[in-house]
Amino acid sequence: MPKRLTPADVSEFRNRLCDVAEHLFAEHGPDAVTIRQLAAELGVSAMTPYRYFADKDAILAAVRARAFDRHAQALENARATPATNATERSNRIGAAYVRFALENPEAYKLMFDVRQPGAEAYPDYARAAARSRATMTAHLEDLAAAGLFHGDTQLVGHIYWAALHGPIMLQLSGLLLPPFDAERLITGLTAAITKEHFGPRGPESGHD
Amino acid sequence: MPKRLTPADVSEFRNRLCDVAEHLFAEHGPDAVTIRQLAAELGVSAMTPYRYFADKDAILAAVRARAFDRHAQALENARATPATNATERSNRIGAAYVRFALENPEAYKLMFDVRQPGAEAYPDYARAAARSRATMTAHLEDLAAAGLFHGDTQLVGHIYWAALHGPIMLQLSGLLLPPFDAERLITGLTAAITKEHFGPRGPESGHD
DNA sequence: CGTAAAGTCTTACGTTGTAAATTTATGGCG
DNA sequence: CGCCATAAATTTACAACGTAAGACTTTACG
Q1: Rounded Cα distance, A158 and B62, in Å
Q2: Touching check for B126 and chain A: CB below 8 Å?
Q3: Residue A26 DSSP code
Q4: Residues 6+ apart with CB under 8 A from A36
Q5: pTM: predicted TM-score of the whole model, two decimal places
Q6: A126 in contact with chain B, both atoms CB, cutoff 8 A
Q7: CB spacing of A158 vs B185 below 8 angstroms
Q8: CA trace torsion B160, B194, B171, B119 (10° rounding)
Q9: pLDDT digit string (tens) for B123-182?
Q10: What is the pLDDT of residues A20-32, one digit of tens each?
Q11: Rounded distance, CA B67 to CA B61, Å?
């Protein structure tokens, strides 16, 4: 049944496979999903995916990259949304970050999964991850441009990032017991960062 | 070769197996290690481990529990070490936390791995994890007892925990690019928490 | 219109986790 | 002291996995 594959055909198949893989990964975990399942779901034979991906590891990397891209898109959307001032926009980006993580916990787990050692070697993954990181520091540059922040935007951007990531990961690991959850810890942490870096009477800032 | 197994025999074999598993997991990742490898390393047949563990998942849970126990032990040692004052002891516990994570990155990854969904169902794992968490809040109770802190010890303990965990996990995910690393972000975050919760001129507090 | 090549499918292999059957050694009882 | 029920370990066996190799099938171009 082969007609010559255009690059568009290739990337369409890759996308369809990643869509299916994403759902199955989220439902059963990446280890429990087999190539044969993916192939069956797509109505092709077990070997067909290997025309489009080097191996299963590459499929995992591609799905992780796509998750990072959707995450980055959510952050960029928040940054592009009109806001009354730079501080509000900044908070909106933080809120978008947390909302994405809590509404797509399986995607977030995949993004920051620590069990694929060579992930940075996949260019798509590296680029998508860098794109998320970029917005996390860019919004501090916005604040600096508006004269609302004077300091190391890269450093404080990373600190802010870690202040969201830590609580989220603790919650997703199942190690936060009621009444504690990511939201609450993030509120506490971002309040501390805000006071530290925006003066003792700086703008009130939760993440939403 | 069977002599009746005493409970001591059983737990000795379990320990030996976990020792081996820990090393192999650290070296190759838990997915890449097979039961047959573990058995060979122990000089027994492939099925023998199944006398001591229900399945591979239970072995992973046991190794994770042991890692949490060693971590908890490191924290408890730091807490038990004499210090000139409660603040210093508190900082030492934070330092012990970070040191353990950075000196045993594979163990730390395993502890907070997000890919074993039913982990809390293993009592050993749940207990070991709770033991680590307990020390992370206990040292704030020490500060409160010394009159150096007035506030919600549980809440701020968790916030402090998240402030260490976030940077560490970002670094272990390989997503922190020079010049940023966990140490630096932790310094920034703990400084902010300290100022927030110990007044604008509270004690200077890095984590070491 | 034929043919080289591209795409797909089928077949096949080594490895995995583990169930079932088998062997082996021992501690308790006549 | 000798036998044997049984606990422990091993051997064997199987279905499922990732994927290499080869066979088939369709298309684009000379």
Answers
A1: 34
A2: no
A3: H
A4: A46
A5: 0.92
A6: no
A7: yes
A8: 0
A9: 999 999 999 999 999 999 999 998 888 889 999 999 999 999 999 999 999 999 999 999
A10: 999 999 999 999 9
A11: 10
d(CA A176, CA A70): 26
- CB contact A31 to B (< 8 Å): yes
3-state class of A85 per DSSP?
coil
Q: Which run of H or E residues covers position A91?
A: helix A86-103
Is the CB of A180 less than 8 angstroms away from the CB of B155?
yes
Q: What is the dihedral of CA B29, B131, A181, B63, to 10 degrees?
A: 20
Residue labelled with tokens 């006398």: B51
Identify residue A185 by its one-letter amino acid code: L
Cα separation, B104 vs B114, in Å, equals: 18
Residue B109's nearest CA partner among B165, B55, B161 is B165
Distance CA B47, CA A156 (A): 53
Q: Which nucleotide is nearest to A51 (CA to C1')?
A: C7
Q: Which of residues 66-125 of A touch B (CB under 8 A)?
A: 109, 112-115, 117, 119-120
Q: Which of A30, A114, A158 lies closest to B173 in CB terms?
A: A114
Helices A182-197 and B153-172: crossing angle, nearest 10°?
90
Cβ neighbours of A183 in B, within 8 Å: none
Diameter of chain B measured on Cα atoms: 69
- Reference B67, options B142, B13, B119, B10; nearest CA is B119
- Residue A72 near residue A128, CB atoms below 8 Å: yes
- Top residue of A108, A122, A158 to mutate, by most chain B CBs within 10 Å, is A158
Residue nearest to nucleotide D28 (CA to C1'): A4
How many of the other CB atoms lie within 10 Å of CB of B207?
A: 22
Nearest CA to B124 out of B57, B33, B188, B62 is that of B62
Residue type, A180: F
DSSP B164-190: HHHHHHHHHTT-PPTT--HHHHHHHHH
